Predict the structure.
Amino acid sequence: MYQLTYFPIRGRAEHIRLFLEDLKIPYESKIVNFEDWESYKAKHSGTEKLPFGQFPIFQDGNLHLAQSGAIARYLARKHDKYGKTDEEKALNDMLFDMAVDIHSIYLKHIYDPQRKQKMDIFVQEAKGKLELVEKFVNRRGNKFVVCNEPTLADYYMFEVLDILLREEKTILDSYPKLKGIHNQMKNRSHIAAFLKSDRRFDKPVAVSDA
């Protein structure tokens, strides 16, 4: 069985959890609490349990992977969710990396102690990226970001859209295609069940009022 090790937040592991849950792939979720992190890091950093001194860590038998993007791509290839053609695979990489960029905008904002006063700046910056993704998916004309079924990029894009909505509930109102993709993903039966379960962590990051 797969094992995914991370903190008790959504963070950089949630798109991996969403993928596993949607495909009903059994996995063990190993949680390391923040108060235990320094001792865990001191003990395991540089070993197979923590090769680069950071979470998440994914284990498949003797294989231990760090870096959430590498984990997601490994799973997508292994479970045929990377796209059917070289073009779809390349577009999945492109949209996945765009989701990373949008997530970075959110993280910069959410950790800013003055974020409430800078909300307009955050919304404007995020919308600049969302507008480009909206235009792209409209040109493609598919049900999801790359094709007509969820693939690699959809899970990360869904999580990013979800945390943006948490911070600004109207942020997708001008982007009907992205809003529709978000709704489709959250209403997929296995994802919907996960979102209501005690396996789902509420907090996106370790910020008390996030």
